[in-house]
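Hi R.,

Here's the chain you asked about this morning:
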Amino acid sequence: MSTTPQEIAREAVKLLAARRLPPTPENFQSAYHEVAGTRPLQPFPLLQLRQIAQALPERTPAQTRFKALFNKAVARHSWEDLEKLLVQHLGNAPAPVAPAVAAAEPAAPLSSAAAPSDAPPIAPDIAEQAARLIETAQPLLAADDARLRDMGEELAHYLRLPQHHAPTLKRMLADYAYRLSFGVDEQLGVREALLGLLRQVFEHIDAISPDNPWLRQQMQALVQAAQPPLSQRRLEDLQARLKDVILKQAEAREQTVRAQELMRQTLATFLERLAQTTVSTGQYHAKFEACAQALERATSLADMAPVVQEAIQTARALAADTQRVADELTDLRDRAERAEAEVQRLRHELDQMAELVTHDLLTGVLNRKGLASALDREARRAERTGTRVCIALLDVDDFKRLNDTLGHLAGDAALKHLADVARRSLRPQDTIGRYGGEEFIIVLPDTTPEEAAGVVQRLQRDLSAHLFLHGEDNVLITFSAGVTELLRDEPVE
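And here is the predicted structure, written out as tokens:
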């Protein structure tokens, strides 16, 4: 037997499929109530019944009492009370109401048969809390469902009435739960789809950047940061991290474009100078050929002298042009080498840019810059909300001995292992960062020092339960820690 709204909804879908009925709202509602063993709640015509109540006469005491009972049944949304009242009134049954009761005061039921229900009344404080719960959930679950929003408002209004008709309230709650199950499923589906889309974008950027190791590492870290469970703090951190990546990429891209433009201009100038040199060489060749022909025709030294002088001048001009072109080409070569060096420098800078962003490249947790931002954000949040913030400082025990014994690569892997265990062990609102070397800081918002100490002790237990695997050996990593409360206007150092 299905008990939860989600189970009832699934069974209703199966029932529609077995009967080969289209999944229209009407068919699904009918199947849902059939599985749940309830009856669908028909819309209560409150406005129309109130108009009828206003039109009822009050010329006699009996009419006054009937109108008071009618108004009471309408206020309770009770079809049963209306039915019993009309049947009794049309049967001219006597009304067991004390004569001293004023006409304007609510009258008691005409008989035990007209009583609305023997079910115990709902305590006013519980009804009020239920109404507040519905109103709190409305913006999240009913934002895109007008019917669910109307049902929630009607149910909250009914819960705040002085009296409730138990069967009516039961059916209203059942219908609201049925509709709410769809809202919850849809919101979960939207959330999973958005997370999947976000991961797909990160993975796609990673796949198309095989020659950019820094970007690939950042994208892989973003994929890991987008894993559930999510919280507002994690989303803010993810947004800040992605913004930092985009800014650094934009800066590097702009500088690379400038360097590439410089190289393009250099190559264009080189080709232009080369073409000019070719033309100039052809012209000088023609002049030398003319001088040679003139010398062949000369019959005396007087005829040869001007030809030789012209040849000498042409040779000097050729030498000067050649030197000028050589100087220009040398300058162009230097500019091209500088542009290529700039591109290489930018690529190297991009590879090393992890030091400038907010996350530690080795462990994936925040670095000092990211920690400063997180502490500032939590301090301002605590000041705004009147809550407390604690910080814990962790120092890995005997880390130098671990490095000397197992090697620096094993030491790096041990730090990454500690960061991975911490991410799984800490609460969603907690933030961990690498302060330097083997030291880590944990930011614990909405936490007292005693609670913070408990969080750190739980991390110690989890680290002892999940040993660091080096080759085939299990290595126990321990740390010492201190906890303190971050006071207002107190420097983090």
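One quick note: The two ends are 60 Å apart (CA to CA).

Cheers,
M.
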